[in-house]
Specification:
Layout lengths: L3 E7 L2 E7 L27 E2 L3 E6 L8 H14 L7 E7 L9 E6 L11 E8 L4 E9 L5 E2 L7 E2 H12 L31 H10 L8 E4 L3 E6 L8 E7 L4 E6 L5 E4 L2 E3 L2 E7 L7 E3 L14 E6 L2 E12 L4 E3 L3 E6 L8 E6 L5 E6 L4 E3 L3 E3 L2 E7 L7 E11 L2 E12 L4 E4 L2 E7 L6 E9 L5 E7 L4 E4 L2 E4 L1 E7 L7 E10 L7 E10 L3 E7 L14 E7 L6 E2 L12 E5 L2 E2 L1 E5 L3 E5 L11 E8 L2 E2 L3 E4 L6 E2 L12 E2 L17 E7 L4 E2 L15 E2 L3 E5 L2 E2 L1 E7 L7 E6 L10 E6 L2 E2 L3 E2 L4 E6 L2 E2 L5 E8 L5 E5 L2 E4 L1 E3 L4 E7 L7 E9 L10 E5 L1
Parallel strand pairs: 3-8, 4-5, 4-6, 6-8, 9-10, 12-20, 22-29, 31-38, 62-69
Antiparallel strand pairs: 1-2, 2-7, 7-8, 11-13, 13-17, 14-16, 14-19, 15-17, 18-20, 19-20, 21-23, 23-27, 24-26, 24-28, 25-27, 28-29, 30-32, 32-36, 33-35, 33-37, 34-36, 37-38, 39-40, 40-45, 41-44, 42-43, 42-46, 44-45, 46-47, 46-48, 49-51, 50-51, 51-57, 52-53, 54-55, 54-58, 56-57, 58-59, 58-60, 61-63, ...
């Protein structure tokens, strides 16, 4: 026991190797009860979801003897703490110590290499997503004297067992807690020493992690599922996840959204079973679902999410599709040629299969000729057609590809025509340009010819604002359809381009839709979280531009590094190109360049470009810090973007629990260490932490802050992770993040939130119907206006709708503030919206 503890990040589990010499790493140090929780530098353990750990004993060493009895006695002591619902549950004798089995195996030796002086090691697996324990194993050293009835040269086996079981349920070493009372979780023990009771520190720790009168959670076994199949072959067989827990416990399940992953049923009670199946139809060979979650919230690694009243578990799913014996892409070929004209363009054939396998190919038609006839997989080859001397008509043939004992036939069709014809791609075009711009905006069109034969053509446009470049040419080849806004008024225009040639279906036309938008203009540059015009911008912050004609179309960045030009839109901040996440004609989201840190306290110039046209520049204030918490409705008010430890959103249906760990998402924290380049995602190792003091305030109290900094895997997004205070005065408490003395916008944890109200103006002297849309609205909601609460009707939906009739006596000329309250909790109103009374 008594050795050292190290923490290793492996896949999606945190292995806390509690081999006792020195103290385990702890996220928050000693608690007031004199106990320590195992964890990492960025988070600490949150216990086990179902408060139960099934246990097996090594039958060769711990069956029907004094060691067996000592282990059972130690388990009973941990499972009998008054005020705790923790249970160790013996299930069988087994020497198996396989991973992801969701149980605790107690072994001697186990092939583990023990450092000198270490009596036992506990390997505790903790989910990096939820902080919850998912597995633990205890291994006793075979080389040191352990005895159930120790003499003065031996160590007490039951004392060591009690200590190691403390690690298995989430407690660390408490050497530095300064306690003068006895404790089991100290990292050293003397020969002959006997302590066989749980003391104040241990009792406080297990009650902290597992308070309650009964288990509400669900245990899953196994803790993940691996499938293997062959590309194009039969689907792998289904697999079953067994769900157990306390009688009456219910659960729900969902997948991470992959099209190839299915489960059934989606809910049930314990004991129950969850069937997992994969349908890898049209998937290429490879490993799917293998990327482990690295960010908060988790990335898109494939998983099944099992949720119960005690929390949620992510069960990783992997699918390994092996290459087939042979696959040919595409499965058929189609060619066209002009009689007496050139040969059609060759087409590509890809051969996929077991790497290094020999293949051969033969043709059933003399006009169908592959460039290669044999080789090893994988391979890519061209297929040519020789159409010389062939009369007009339709011809059929095939290619037969063989690898090993597998043969695939690829049908091929050839159409030979006597007259050339054009092929236009695309047949319709949409163009956009701001009013007053005299520069052309263009779209490419390919003027092709059937069979790749040369065909001369001429073009004409139906409108004066429309043109084709060039005006004539020879197919196959490119051309450009262009429009000029010039003096055209704002609006939508339609025209067409006619392509004439000598042949069938002459002429052919391209329909053109042209939208003339208002001139490019930026109305405001604001924090992407709050949209507050009075809040300055900060280096590394998510910033939103609002305006008109900022971009010709809507587009979003496809990945990292982020582009500085997207859909012909660019943004310069102080002359520096900004990394773009999203652009549209009315809104652009970007990451403020890191160089802004050098001009904090002054102002900078922001210029948006729509193509070659710049909108008039705007000036924005710059600060070192300006934290803004994102909100559920994206309007900077009401319920904040706050999640439970399992990644689910804090809401009216799932409010905060005292003592739980939550994540608050925001932007504008200020300097980070290490800094994150403008176009890059924040790293997960090392984590990029906020520089300077950050405080998370919940219900007016300082929450215990576990981490504040960049959210791994994202750009411009930051997160503050903390523990909710042990007592809350409100169901939906206020949440504020403060960075070096600068406070964020005030949000609530799951409180009622309003998005919009209609109509925007009401008449004096008449009762008026008001419609409000929002979220987290109770069925017992009323509208707070003029100091009175008026009963209202709420209709549920993705956005809830509230309707209320306001009496004429409350409608006085001028602005009118309306908010929504739960009549059962009138002290917690929503954000307010303004209505004009005229």
């Amino acid at each position: 026991m008594i050795g050292r503890t190290s923490l290793l990040l492996l896949g999606c589990s945190l292995l806390a190797w509690s081999a006792e010499t020195g103290n385990p790493v702890a996220a928050a140090g000693c608690r007031s009860g004199g106990f320590v929780l195992i964890g990492s530098s960025s988070f600490e353990v949150a216990g086990k979801a179902d408060s139960t750990l099934n246990v097996t004993f090594d039958p060769a060493n711990y069956q029907n003897n004094g060691f067996d009895e000592a282990l059972r006695t130690a388990m009973t002591k941990w499972s009998s703490v008054s005020g705790s619902n923790w249970k160790f549950n013996f299930t069988s004798y087994s020497s198996d110590i396989s991973g992801r089995d969701g149980k605790m195996s107690v072994l001697r030796g186990g092939g583990y290499s023990f450092p000198e002086g270490v009596l036992a090691v506990t390997r505790t697996s903790v989910s990096t997503e939820t902080g919850q324990i998912v597995d633990a194993d205890i291994i006793f050293s075979p080389g040191l004297p352990l005895n159930s009835f120790p003499n003065n040269q031996e160590y007490d086996f039951e004392l060591v067992a009690l200590h190691e079981m403390g690690h298995a349920l989430g407690l660390g070493h408490n050497d530095d807690c300064g306690t003068t009372t006895p404790t089991i979780m100290h990292s050293t023990v003397d020969v002959g020493e006997q302590k066989r009771d749980l003391y104040d520190a241990e009792i406080a720790g297990v009650k902290f992690l597992y308070s309650g009168s009964g288990s509400r959670g669900v245990s899953a076994a196994p803790l993940g599922v691996d499938f293997q199949g062959v590309e194009g072959g039969p689907f792998p067989g289904t697999q079953t996840i067994t769900l157990t827990g306390a009688a009456g416990t219910t659960w729900s399940a969902a997948t991470s959204g992959e099209s190839w992953l299915e489960i059934s049923p989606s809910s049930g009670g314990v004991a129950g079973a969850l069937t997992v199946r994969v349908k890898p139809e049209n998937l290429a060979s490879g490993l799917y679902g293998s990327s482990s979650p690295k960010s908060i919230p988790p990335s898109t690694a494939a998983f099944v999410l099992v949720s119960s009243a005690a929390g949620s578990q992510h069960l990783p799913i992997t699918l390994n599709l092996l290459p087939p014996a042979l696959r040919v892409i595409p499965g058929s070929l189609n060619f066209g040629a002009l009689a007496g004209g050139p040969n059609p363009e060759p087409q590509i054939l890809s051969l996929i299969g077991r790497l290094g396998s020999a293949w051969s190919i033969t043709s059933t038609a003399p006009w169908l000729r592959p460039t290669l006839t044999s080789g090893t997989l994988t391979a890519t080859l061209s297929v040519n057609v020789v159409s010389a001397g062939m009369a007009a008509g339709n011809y059929s043939g095939s290619l037969r590809v063989t690898a090993g004992d597998v043969t695939r036939e690829v049908p091929a069709q050839l159409e030979v025509t006597s007259e050339p014809r054009l092929q236009l791609d695309p047949a319709t075009i949409s163009l956009t340009s701001p009013r007053g711009v005299r520069l052309e905006t263009c779209a490419a069109v390919r003027i092709g010819s059937f069979g790749n034969a040369p065909v001369s053509w001429t073009a004409s446009a139906s409108e004066s604002w429309l043109s084709v470049l060039p005006g004539s040419g020879q197919a196959p080849g490119p051309a450009f359809v262009c429009a000029v806004a010039g003096a055209l008024a704002v609006g939508n225009y339609a025209g067409s381009v006619t392509i004439a040639y000598r042949g069938p279906n002459n002429p052919q036309t391209i329909a053109v839709a042209f939208r003339v938008t208002p001139p490019a203009a930026v109305s405001r540059a604001v924090s992407g979280a709050t949209f507050d015009v009075d809040q300055p911008i900060v280096a590394g912050q998510l910033v939103t531009l609002f305006g008109e004609s900022l971009a010709p179309r809507t587009a979003q960045a496809g990945g990292f590094p982020l582009p500085t030009e997207l859909a012909d839109c660019r943004v310069l901040v102080g002359g520096i190109p900004a990394a773009l996440l999203y652009v549209s004609p009315g809104q652009v989201n970007f990451v403020a360049p890191a160089a802004l840190a050098g001009v904090a306290g002054s102002t900078t110039v922001i210029t948006a470009y729509n193509g070659r046209l710049a909108a008039p520049s705007v000036r924005a204030r710059v600060a070192a810090r300006a934290p803004g918490v994102f909100t559920v409705l994206g309007n900077g008010a009401g319920a904040g973007a706050i999640t439970h430890a399992d990644g689910s959103l804090v809401s009216a249906a799932a409010p905060l629990d005292p003592g739980e760990i939550v994540s608050v998402y925001l932007t504008g924290l200020g300097p980070l260490d290490p800094s994150v380049p403008d176009s890059d995602a924040a790293p997960s190792s090392p984590l990029s932490r906020a520089v300077g003091e950050v405080r998370l305030r919940i219900d007016g109290k300082d929450a215990e802050l576990l981490f504040a900094g960049a959210s791994p895997g994202f750009a411009g997004l930051q997160v503050a992770i903390g523990r909710v205070p042990e007592s809350l005065s409100r169901r939906f408490p206020a949440v504020v993040v403060e960075s070096q003395g600068v406070s964020s916008n005030a949000t609530t944890a799951g409180g009622p939130s309003l998005l919009e109200v209609s109509p925007a103006s009401l008449s004096v002297g008449n009762d008026s119907l008001l419609t409000i849309r929002g979220v987290n609205l109770s069925g017992a909601s009323g509208v707070l206006v003029g100091g009175e609460t008026i009963p209202a009707t709420v209709t549920d939906g993705p956005l809830q709708t509230l309707r209320v009739i306001l009496p004429a006596r409350l409608l006085k000329p001028g602005p009118l503030s309306v908010a929504v309250v739960d009549t059962k909790a009138p002290a917690e109103p929503s954000n307010a919206l303004a209505v004009r009374v005229e």
